[in-house]
Specification:
Layout (H helix, E strand, L loop, with lengths): L1 E8 L3 H21 L1 E9 L16 E2 L3 H4 L6 E4 L7 H10 L3 E4 L2 H17 L4 E2 L10 H8 L5 E7 L2 H13 L3 H10 L8 H4 L2 H14 L10 E2 L7 H9 L2 E12 L2 E12 L11 E8 L3 E8 L3 H20 L28 E11 L4 H11 L4 E6 L7 E8 L2 E2 H12 L9 E5 L5
Helix pairs in contact: 1-11, 3-4, 4-9, 6-7, 12-13
The structure holds L-homoserine.
């Protein structure tokens, strides 16, 4: 029986999960693969702290070079995360003719072109299922299962931390700061939660998804991004009254030869499947031009769910090795010799439905001033609620709109916020109630 030799760089939570999975399911994997996976070495700066698995001490090293330059090792598994030295390790491993499996979304989202070019030049594989959606097979679904489709619509919850916080805020009626502290105490949120709550982690994942669904290269800085730290209890309550729930969504839509892509808190109908993805779960709602809707749901993080995705990548590469093939499936949506940058629609040009909460004086003529400006800017009102919850002399006046252009909305709100009857900056939350 053929033996395929592995080297693991990064013995943190996910790395330990991969080792545990190999130990627990080694026999099953061997039967399914028809080959033996042999983990020859594990590199980590910390090789003394006990992990959830025990490994023979001789397996551990603090020097990643002992994996990258070991001629016996066929597949390097990079699970250390971050930009450097992960980038250099991956590039060296590829240059040495090794296949690579990684979960490093930040690296692929920003240095993907360099990494994939290097892999292609050396005719080796690089796989990254665990970089987006944890255990959920979204990479494979987009690259393989839906390969014959134009991806008309992609709507996803890709950050478990934000989803956990928003779900708790909605269902337990606790404000953002309280839920964030609870989430940190439970280990669901990082001590510095910025990446998760400000949509940066989601942006890295969306950049990867775009390169799988729409073309090859995208500039991550051009993706509009808004996090959840400004979501208030008041807006969650109004969302409920309108029949919506608020989720941090990554959205991408096919628009002719352009793509609309954005990340922001979004009101979606309370009965939509995505609206009922709660706690720290992730989910993907994709509409392919021929497939129609496809929905994927599961754990977007965590030791064993993520390890499951890493192992599937290892096995895919190993299957190719057994048959002497690599790169049977392109790394991204197109083969590497086709240059095709993704053309994003400038964010001010997008059109969607909006929710506005104005904090306005409760007196005659206020609504007509606000609606007058909206009318001048071609923004058509779909519904209005005013509730007498007076705060510092102002009451919330809440509206939803029909489809309007972002640029017009921004200009209208700038003008409205200058009115002396409007006491606070207006809150804007985008609504998606089609396609779900
Ligand atoms: N920090 C991420 C999340 C998990 O909260 O979903 C890793 O991608």
């Amino acid at each position: 029986m053929k033996t395929i030799t592995l080297g693991l760089i990064g013995f943190g939570t996910i790395g330990a999960g991969v080792v545990r999975l190999l130990q627990e399911n080694g026999g099953l994997i061997e039967r399914r693969l028809g080959a033996r996976l042999f983990l020859k070495r594990i590199a980590d700066l910390d090789i003394t702290t006990p992990r959830v698995v025990s490994v023979p001490p001789g397996l551990l090293t603090t020097e990643a070079a002992k994996i990258i330059h070991d001629p016996d090792i066929d597949i390097v598994i990079e699970l250390m995360g971050g930009y450097e030295p992960a980038r250099s390790y991956i590039l060296s491993a590829l240059a040495n003719g090794k296949h690579v499996v990684t979960a490093n979304k930040a690296l692929l989202a920003t240095h993907g072109n360099e990494v994939f070019r290097t892999a292609d030049r050396r005719h080796v594989d690089i796989r990254f299922e665990a970089s987006v959606g944890g255990t959920i097979p979204i990479v494979k679904t987009l690259k393989e299962s839906l390969v014959g489709n134009r991806i008309d619509s992609f709507m996803a919850i890709m950050n478990g931390t934000s989803n956990y916080i928003l779900s708790k805020m909605t269902d337990e009626e606790k404000p953002f700061q309280v839920v964030l502290k609870e989430a940190q105490a439970l280990g669901f949120a990082e001590a510095d939660p910025t990446f998760d709550i400000e949509g940066i982690d989601t942006a890295h994942k969306l950049a990867i998804v775009l390169s799988l669904a729409y073309g090859k290269r995208v500039n991550i800085d051009q993706i509009y991004r808004e996090g959840i730290s400004n979501i208030s209890m008041q807006d969650l309550e109004f969302a409920k009254e309108f029949g919506y729930r608020i989720k941090l969504l990554a959205l991408a839509f096919s628009r002719g030869d352009q793509v609309e892509a954005r990340i922001h808190p979004t009101m979606i109908p309370a009965d939509a499947m995505l609206a009922n993805v709660n706690s720290n779960f992730n989910a993907f709602h994709i509409i392919g031009s021929s497939s129609g809707p496809v929905f994927l749901y599961g754990q977007g993080a965590g030791m064993m769910p993520t390890a499951s995705a890493v192992i599937s990548d290892i096995i895919d590469i190993a299957r190719g090795m057994i048959h002497g093939v690599s790169r049977l499936v392109p790394y991204r949506s197109l083969s590497e010799d086709i240059i095709d940058d993704i053309r994003l629609i400038p964010f001010p040009e997008i059109r969607t439905n909006y929710y506005f909460r104005f904090m306005a004086a409760d007196k005659a003529g206020v609504l007509s001033k606000i609606s007058g400006i909206l009318g001048e800017m071609n923004i058509s009102i779909a519904s209005v609620i005013q509730k007498g919850r007076k705060k510092d002399g102002a009451v919330p006046v809440v509206m939803t709109t029909h489809k309007a252009r972002e640029l017009d909305v921004r200009e209208a709100l700038t003008r409205i916020d200058r009115l002396d009857v409007v006491h606070e900056p207006t809150v804007l939350i985008r609504i998606e109630d089609e396609r779900l």
